[in-house]
Design brief:
The chain is of the alpha/beta class. It folds into two domains: 81 residues, Alpha-Beta Plaits, CATH 3.30.70; 158 residues, 3-Layer(aba) Sandwich (Rossmann fold), CATH 3.40.50.150. 30% of the residues lie in helices and 32% in strands. The protein is built from nine helices and 14 strands. The radius of gyration is 19 Å and the shape is globular.
Length: 294
């Protein structure tokens, strides 16, 4: 009898000092399926970062090397590597283990789709077994707080590299009249649409396949939030800047504090000046603005 096929996940593996495992593990898990911690001795923790697809391995390894270096850790000494995990139900079990957590000043995230209401906070439900990138990453937290503060009532926003669509929902609930979320990954777009649907399908929000080089219709936008990677901003600064309307804002993140100056300078070459910087060591978030031509 033929055995049924099982989904095959790829994972990064590394061993970290116990006192740094939670922080580094959460940082590396941003935008990926999730993270699992396992005791590896009195002072060490084995960490697995689960990935969505095989071609995500090399970028994830590079991110890990860069982040470990920022913490003064050597990748080889941490045993950084990869492994194949044949377990089609890992995502469901992982999400079932997550507890609701507060996000920004006005939200609470329910990773498993359900949870207890928190007074004064709007619940953001994720799709069990489908969602990746729960919103725990420090850059997502910082972007949320900036959206709550910076979104003007009636404005039009783009969530570039939307993932699960959490930041799109935050922008919409913070007062945006319309929000477009786009991602190169069709799976991410499908998940974002499902996420919007189980959150009562807020009006004025849509998700499409797209990128800085193939942007969705409706631009330029009053605001763009983009939580991706330093290489993205270094490569696509011009294309990203074109998405920002006169007097509009770009909230940019996904890079380390040490990269913030070079990324701000690169965006400045295309008319976007820095107006705010938030640091959640080792991560940074930039708010840049296009001057009005009126």
């Amino acid at each position: 009898m033929q055995r049924p096929e099982t989904a095959r996940w790829h994972a990064l593996v590394l061993t970290l000092p116990e006192e740094r495992a939670d922080e580094i593990g959460a940082a590396l898990a941003g935008g990926r399926l999730g993270v699992h911690f396992e005791d590896a001795g009195a002072t060490s923790t084995l960490v697995r970062i689960y990935l969505r697809e095989p071609d995500a391995i090399e970028p994830a390894l590079e991110d890990a090397r860069e982040l470990l270096a920022a913490y003064g850790l050597d990748a080889d000494q941490c045993g950084l590597g990869q492994e194949l995990v044949e377990d089609g139900r890992w995502v469901e079990r992982y999400q079932a283990s997550l507890k609701p957590f507060v996000l920004g000043r006005g939200f609470v995230v329910w990773p498993s789709g359900t949870g207890e209401p928190v007074e004064g906070r709007h619940a953001l439900k994720l799709v069990p077994g489908r969602a990746f990138g729960t919103g725990e990453h420090p850059t997502t937290q910082a972007c949320t707080e900036l959206l709550e503060h910076r979104v003007r009532p009636g404005s039009r926003w783009l969530d570039l590299g939307c993932g699960t669509g959490i930041l799109s929902l935050v922008a919409q609930h913070s007062g945006a009249a319309s929000v477009v979320g786009c991602d190169l990954d069709p799976l991410a777009v499908d998940v974002a649409r499902e996420t919007a649907a189980i959150n009562d399908g807020p009006s004025g929000i849509r998700f499409v396949v797209g990128s800085a080089t193939a942007p969705p219709e409706g631009g330029p936008f009053d605001g763009v939030v983009c939580n991706i990677s330093p290489s993205f901003f270094q490569t696509y600064a011009a294309e990203t800047a074109e998405l920002v309307a006169d007097s509009g804002l770009l909230i940019a993140s996904g890079f380390l504090v040490e990269d913030a100056v070079s990324i701000a300078n690169g965006l400045a070459e295309y008319g976007l000046r820095e107006v705010e910087r938030v640091e959640r060591a080792p991560w940074a978030v930039l708010v840049v603005e296009r001057a009005s031509t009126a």
